[in-house]
Amino acid sequence: MEAVARAPIDALPPRRLRRKSPMRFRNRLPGGRLFEVFEERPLGGRLRAVRRILLVLLWTLVAVPVQALLILLPGRPKVAFARIYHRVLCALIGLRLQVVGTPSPARPVLFLPNHSSWLDILVLGAVLEACFVAKGEVATWPLVSWVARLGRTVFVTRSRGTTGREAEEMRRRMAAGDSLILFAEGTSSDGTRVLPFRSSFLGVADAACQVQPVSVVYDRLGGLPACRRDRPLFAWYGDMDIGSHFWRLARRSGTRATVLLHQPFAPETLPNRKALAAASWRIVSEGAAALRQNRPAAPLPAPLPAPLAAPLAHPRPQPGSLGGNGAGRDETVA
Asked: Would the pTM of this model clear 0.70, i.e. be above it?
């Protein structure tokens, strides 16, 4: 008898199915549509968002006349109430706050945080007793401009004709004892990085007693650590509309922002505003990177004073050279 080679799969004939139709499993739990937790919920969180928006508007209508009255009175009650206003707003929209570090007790202080969203105003306003420095466009926004003016915000337009007047206003505020919150990036980012700090914004740093870098990261969503794909829910940049952005955020729960207050230092610690911008950016970006990676973060130390450079013995210039490389040239500090 001749052996025939065949594949092992061919030696096992298929069994005859007893069922006329294949089995189908439903993607749901028993109990009807009320317990369908695996399907998309396009209407989920709408009642929560409507409730939060109404509470925010109601609290703002109550707080505006109170703050308008406190501005006319001397002392610091207007500063303390502005902090209470922002803290209540964070609670109403379901945003929990975690603060690591301590704000500088000196007055005035120039706080230098990173900037990724309009939420930074609420978060930093709830943690720090200071006034914001905002772009001039904010003064034209409905409702937001009223709240900003009652918070004694300093508006800047960054135009050549008004730069000197705006710098004098910032110096006058700090001379009166008001601390300022300045977003040295100049614009908001996507929340995945910290943009370089612009040294031109730090021309008034010498009017402050201390400078304190601050890292702000939104690290919780739904009670779980936020990842890279969740950053656009918090970040507000480009041509995003603030109304739709707030609506999407108000529908979510379990959100949290962490504020990392680094060690303050005197502005004269560093030789010029370029060095101040670079050192502050490094501290803020390192702290924000640690928070984004959900690692335990601690306030970073202040930059060390610049050592006094000893006079160097320069080589004799060669014929036809200018006698130097121009590396020691420094720009004029406003």
From this structure: yes
